[in-house]
# Entry
Amino acid sequence: MNSYDVAVIGSGPGGYVAAIRCAQLGMKTAIIEKYSTLGGTCLNVGCIPSKALLDSSHHYEDAIKHFEEHGIDISGEVKVNLEKMIARKQSVVDQTTGGIDFLMKKNKIDVYEGLGSFKDATHILIKGEKEEEIEAKNTIIATGSKPSSLPFINIDKERVITSTEALKLKEVPKHLIVIGGGVIGLELGQVYKRLGAEVSVVEYADRILPTMDAGVSKELNKVLKKQKFNINASHKVKSVERVGDEVIVKADNKKGEEVEFKGDYCLVSVGRRPYTDGLNAEAAGVKINDRGQVEVNDHLQTSASNIYAIGDVIKGAMLAHKAEEEGVFVAETLAGQKPHIDYNLIPGVVYTWPEVAAVGKTEEQLKEAGVEYKVGQFPMRALGRSRASMDLDGFVKVLADKTTDEILGVHMVGARAADMIAEAVVAMEYRASAEDVSRMSHAHPTFTEAIKEAALAATGDRALHV
Ligand code: FAD
# Structure
């Protein structure tokens, strides 16, 4: 039987990063993955394929809507070849997952293909083509999550689908009904909207992106409406019925009236659930809480002292970069180091266009905590860079402590917000004040000037270009 210092169960961004860091720190490491490709949800059916389709559909939309105003005449019809678009997405996925194979080899990590399940706290059975058993002094559970649904919905994976099927449709829906106006629903909704579908979003909460800053959610709502999204907040879905090729969704609106949506596809994007099926966690003494998450302490250690858990399968934001930070954290803890993660500074991003990005506290959270704060907000349309590319929607909002001026939160909607948020993370990591950021030179013309201007606005209303 092969014996390891560390076995990692699950090869998503949490698991494979944990394995690499363990190997870098000199531990003999194994990784177990039940699928034939490494990379987990993120690389196979999450972050990477969704961004590939967002990019392709963005090019198409630019061609049909914006090339002309840029002075580019396209003679003849511009058409979508969905099969090719999906094939390109798959080749991006294949290259990326192949890259993880390379990294495992480079770091001398043994890869086992099969379902990992605990025999006891130091032995794992791997059920793949053959059945194997390995011994591990320490184990890191990184088994991730799966799409969740509502109890009355039958996901048939043909017309009533999850994000996984939405990434490989064979036709552009005529009318896509999206249940859930969170990140995944809006991103995939925008892909098919750009490709020509009518898109109706049905959201239970009183606004889309309900966990983000309300100002940001309002701005994106406005922009999506301009893009002709049909957004229905405060709608409680009560039935989803498939009749032939039609899907009928019934919901109650705020007034308690029944509203019916008829479409040809329904994307159920109501969240994800932690995944521990088949893991046999009890055999190792690992507790699962009533939300289905592996319970961990502040060191990400489970109720079994030699077993740790990271990523989507534990509490906290279900984000690839959060899982990665936790992977490194556990590897370094096992090596006797004292790592640290500031969960307040894990940024959240929505890759619609315009993009949405945020870090730190929202206005709602600051109000609830009774913190006195200042707001500096700057519209993207006031930037020369925005006018050059005609990306005029959105704003950057900086929230700073009223007394100390320390930046407490940064929220933005706009072109390239996903990349710009890194500046806010760095500033907040170093506990910068709004004035610190406002006094740093930002290249002109760039979208990042909106951060400087919003910081100026927060520092005594000193924005220069509004
Ligand atoms: P996962 O990536 O879910 O990996 C877990 C792995 O464990 C899987 O490969 C699974 O097969 C394997 N496994 C499970 N049980 C066993 C077992 N018993 N034995 C062996 N193997 C097992 N996040 C972002 O940060 N940015 C984005 O842009 C983004 N976009 C997304 C878009 C979509 C459509 C979706 C669905 C998700 C997106 N996410 C995004 C979320 C992101 O994918 C997850 O947060 C991330 O993958 C979690 O990583 P993880 O390592 O915890 O688990």
Q: What stands out?
A: The longest strand covers residues 131-141. The chain has 13 helices and 22 strands. Residues 82-106 form the longest helix (25 residues).
